[in-house]
Write a structure and sequence with these properties.
The structure holds 2 protein chains of 2 kinds. By secondary structure, chain A is mostly helical. Chain A is built from 6 helices and 2 strands. Helix content of chain A is about 50%, strand content about 10%. Chain B is about 35% helix and about 15% strand. Chain B has helices at about 15-20, 45-60, 70-90, 105-115, 150-155, 175-180, 205-210, 225, 230-235, 260-265, 305-315, 320-335, 365-375, 390-395, 410-429, and strands spanning about 25-30, 30, 35, 95-100, 120, 125, 135-140, 160-165, 185-190, 215-220, 240-245, 255-260, 275-280, 285, 340-345, 355-360, 380, 380-385, 400-405. The chains are: A mainly alpha, B alpha/beta. The interface between A and B is medium-sized, with 18 and 15 residues.
Chain lengths: ~140, ~425
Amino acid sequence: MDSLEEAKAAVVEQFSLFDEWLDKYEYLIELGKDLEAFPVEHKTDEHLIEGCQSRVWLDTELRDGRLYFRADSDAIITKGIISLLIGVYSGRRPEEIASDDFSFVEAIGLRENLSPTRANGLSSMIARIRAEAKAQMS
Amino acid sequence: MVPIEQAKEYPMTLEQARKRFPQLEETVYGKPLVYLDHAATSLRPLEVVRCWEEVSFRKNANLHRAVHYMAQQATAAFEEARATVASFLGAASPREIVFTPGATAAANLLATCLGQSRIEGGHRVAEPYIGAGDCLLVAESEHHSNLVPWQMLCERTGARLVVLPVEEDGSYNLTRLEEALKAAPKLFCIAHISNVLGLINPIAEMAALCHRAGCRVVVDGAQGIVHADVNVCEMGADYYFFSGHKIYAAPGTGVLWARAELLDELPPYMGGGEMIDHVRWEGSTWAEPPYRFEAGTQNLSGVPTLVPALRLLQELRGPEMLANALAVRDYVWEQLLAIQGLRLYGNPSDRSLKVPIFSFSIEGVHHEDLALLLDKMGVAVRSGQMCAEPLMGRIGVTGMVRASFAPFNTLQEAETFIKSLHKAIGMLR
């Protein structure tokens, strides 16, 4: 498995390949469509992330000292964004996730290209991933 | 300049109209901007910005009180706006026009004051118009601004809020209104035109039924003032309010109109300068309307912009503009209905009731995804709940997309919107 820094750098590089924002969104849509199916029974209020205009569910599992995330959203671009986050952070140690600054999101220019409500939603997703990691830190 | 009453006959061309709005030259993400969010905020025309500049540089002073020249100029500009608004609305007198920071502020003023002791002979004596046990009837498709203030009034006073359900096609059934009036509501609150459905409500017929039942009518004119000829007296409304920023005037301007006798009985909303008659330690007395409701320094640069804005609004209703607006509306309407899985909210059989506000959802596609992709294609539309969450619940959606047009949006822009929409759907499905 790539290191966290390598995984982030790979995403930044992938995004730099697209000149147009429409192409970046096309990529996010593909990521969203390819995201592993999320069990319906896990779509509970407990897994719902507050602050997102579109609904986002995040499920966390701790296995062998590492955190694994699964997620879903009713909006496909949001789903692509959360897929991007999961791709980078899933399977890492809670300490590593909790201490990361998530600044690669700024590096790909994602936040400023979202509507304020979506940017707020993205912050909520990051906050939830961090909180889950902190809760699992031993 | 064309007198405001005759401006409708002014032969403004589409080209002339578009030259008034420099924002139409903008590009976003390297594409020409197609702005279709006029129902939220209209574009600002040159004459409004110039008026703001003129007032700010040459007529900038506090209103009414000071004797100096600048104050006289400022007061004259402010009061000219009041007279212009009164004439535009067909009000009996300029004293029926209260300036507010917007439609929401107007609704809150009204909802607050109607729950407090009324005024007779300049003093607070009578019971509030709305008190414990009273009933308020609110239409189901209302914007939160004509809903939440009434809920808050009910919370404060112990009054009760009853909902008038909207029909499947977005219209209101007058028989159902008559039924609801049997509960003897004291107020009926409804939009002239729904900001979601884009349908003109039959306010005159509704007001006649309400008045027969002793119920006053509050009309949210935020969209009505944009798209319909408004004559508050003929309409039979008791209260009518709207925002300036949707009719090309400066943001932070708004109007509350009420019949003179209804304004007379309203107690003050905010205390401060200008709204008083005498201030003494044992108590103060209030100025006459409309000044009673205009506490503190007013939006003295913004309010005068209502004059050029209303003039332009009239000019944009000239023959060529109207023909263009109808052609664009009909094209968009037809093209939207042809899209597979598209559900259009507010789709009346009587075409004359529909204004160019199109709210829709598309099966299998999230409204936010659509709006986000359209944005990247240069097309600005609104997505979400449109500040009408109860209506979203009734329809059974978490949100929708809304494209709202101005009379100067071209057929070419409408085509770009439809093409972009097809492309976005293709990407998302």
